[in-house]
């Protein structure tokens, strides 16, 4: 029996999730997409991939049986992800976990709830992905890597073995992270960066090698 799914919000990540589900026979068998919800009045009635914005987040009360995929976050507002998701005031069993069928996931990897893995993501042996995470297409997470809660990892990112990315980080697309590096809480790694040493918390780094841009 298919499970009902509502996606929040009507942003880039949400629309990518809808595209993944509607283009996959396996995911269409697993999920019945009810619609999007978004608290921005300008989003009301918009649609993506044939899936419509139903209204604001109060709609969630009308579908108590539906699972929720909450995937806000971009480089400009990623620091607010935790507050936005917690503001939905949902128990953890209401959240969905959507994994693209083309993702290659080691049997001993661990993946949390409200986490989205898009096409061709590779999750290596012993890797851990926390709750409320987004992993965009073609990203590789090496063996024994740890991605903590509320992280966004862009497309085509290479995370080497034993890397730790602490909670609330944003890793820009096309970046590479050297083995055993730790990226601390709420840091942002700019697009196309090569990270070869540990990154302190709450900073922005970018470049080859990645260097501090802003505290």
Into which percentage range does the β-strand content fall? 25-35%
Question: How helical, in percent, are the residues?
Answer: 10-25%
Strand order of the largest sheet: 6-9-12-15-18-21-23-24
- Please, what is the oligomeric state? single chain
Using the coordinates shown, work out and report the CATH topology of the largest domain. UDP N-Acetylglucosamine Acyltransferase, domain 1
- Element-level helix/strand string: EHHEEEEHEEEEEEEEEEEEEEEEEEE
Please characterize this protein's 3D structure.
There is one protein chain. The chain folds into 2 domains: about 5-95, Rossmann fold; about 100-205, UDP N-Acetylglucosamine Acyltransferase, domain 1, CATH 2.160.10. Helix content is about 10%, strand content about 30%. It has 3 helices and 24 strands. The chain has helices at about 10-20, 25-30, 80-85, and strands at about 5-10, 30-35, 45-50, 50-55, 65-70, 100, 105, 110, 115, 120-125, 130, 135, 140, 145, 150-155, 160, 165, 170, 175, 180-185, 190, 195, 205, 210-215. A hairpin with a 2-residue loop joins strand 3 and strand 4. The chain starts with a strand and ends with a strand. The mean pLDDT is about 100.
Describe, in short, the structure shown.
With 215 residues, the chain is mainly beta. The protein folds into two domains: 3-94, Rossmann fold, CATH 3.40.50; 102-206, UDP N-Acetylglucosamine Acyltransferase, domain 1, CATH 2.160.10.10. Helix content is 11%, strand content 30%.
């Amino acid at each position: 029996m298919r499970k009902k799914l509502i996606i929040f919000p009507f942003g880039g990540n949400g629309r990518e999730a809808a595209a993944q589900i509607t283009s996959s026979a396996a995911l269409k068998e697993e999920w019945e997409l009810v619609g999007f919800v978004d608290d921005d009045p300008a989003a009301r009635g918009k649609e993506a991939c044939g899936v419509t914005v139903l209204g604001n987040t109060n709609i969630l009360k009308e579908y108590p049986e539906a699972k929720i995929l909450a995937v806000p976050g971009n480089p400009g507002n990623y620091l607010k992800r935790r507050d936005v998701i917690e503001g939905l005031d949902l128990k953890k069993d209401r959240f969905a976990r959507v994994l693209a069928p083309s993702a290659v996931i080691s049997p001993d990897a661990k993946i949390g709830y409200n986490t989205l893995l898009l096409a061709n993501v590779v999750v290596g042996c012993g890797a851990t992905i926390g709750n409320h995470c987004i992993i965009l297409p073609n990203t590789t997470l090496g063996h024994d890597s740890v991605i903590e809660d509320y992280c966004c990892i862009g497309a085509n990112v290479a995370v080497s073995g034993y890397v730790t990315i602490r909670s609330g980080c944003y890793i820009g697309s096309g970046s590479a992270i050297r083995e055993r590096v730790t990226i601390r809480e709420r840091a942002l790694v700019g697009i196309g960066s090569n990270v070869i040493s540990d990154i302190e918390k709450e900073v922005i780094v970018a470049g080859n090698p990645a260097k501090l841009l802003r505290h």
